[in-house]
Each structure stands twice: as structure tokens, then as C-alpha cells.
Amino acid sequence: MKINPSLALITLCALASSARAEVKPNALFSDNAVLQQNASVPVWGSAKEGEKVTVTLDGKTETTVAKEGKWMVRLKPHQAGGPFTLTIAGENTITVNKVLVGEVWVCTGQSNMAFNFQYAANAATEAPLANNPKLRMFTVPL
Known about the structure:
The protein is α+β, with helices and mostly antiparallel strands. It contains 3 helices and 8 strands, in the order αββββββββαα. It has a single domain (22-130), classed as Immunoglobulins (Immunoglobulin-like). The radius of gyration is 21 Å and the shape is globular.
């Protein structure tokens, strides 16, 4: 039996891509994230259909099963603190480091929200005073 090399390569690529359906959290859940204190916090992402996903924060675990390539769990309310490690496990494991639980503020607006701090009149004076390792910022790309 003669095997067509092109067909064999295409078949191997297709098998490899289906085997690599990794659990992935939404981009919000990355190192240095902050989760809202004293509230049920949704954590979500993608995974292959039917994949069991387990999310652990500070020894507390929630589990779900991916449906239509998506999953979501709700972490129980947590007091302010950290840093913690957030672990998201399915067929692979994602570790999110230095996660804090505290106040999350969502700021939105028009051009005023796009203003870069470095251009403020007093940026050189204020920037060194803003040295707070528990203050985090996540900027959503345009």
C-alpha cells in the first residue's frame, strides 16, 4: 500500500490540532490580576467540548465542564488579601501568579480615558510617589 505523503501530513496536522485543545482563561486572568473582594467572581475561558475545568484560588476549588468551547465558574466571595496563585486546570494547567483580592475599579470614557499619564503636567513629580505594589492596571486594547 502506497501512502500519499501530502495526505499523511495533512492528517497528522489535523490530529495534532485536535489534541491541542488546551484550557485557556480569558486575558483578564493573567499574572498580577485583581479579583473583586466580597463578591462572587466569575472566571471564564475556552476549552474543548466536554473538558472538565477546575479553578482553584487560596485552597478553594470550583469545577465545571466546557460547553461549545467555553467554560465559566464563579468563585465564592473572598476577603481582601494576597498575593495568591490562581490555578486553572483541564487537560493542561495554567498558573496565574501574584493575584490580589481587593477593590476592582472599571474606568471608561472617551478620549479622556486614553490620555497617557506620562504626558501629564506633573508626571515627573507624581510618578515616583505612586509606588504601590498592590495597585494594578489592566488596559483593554482598542
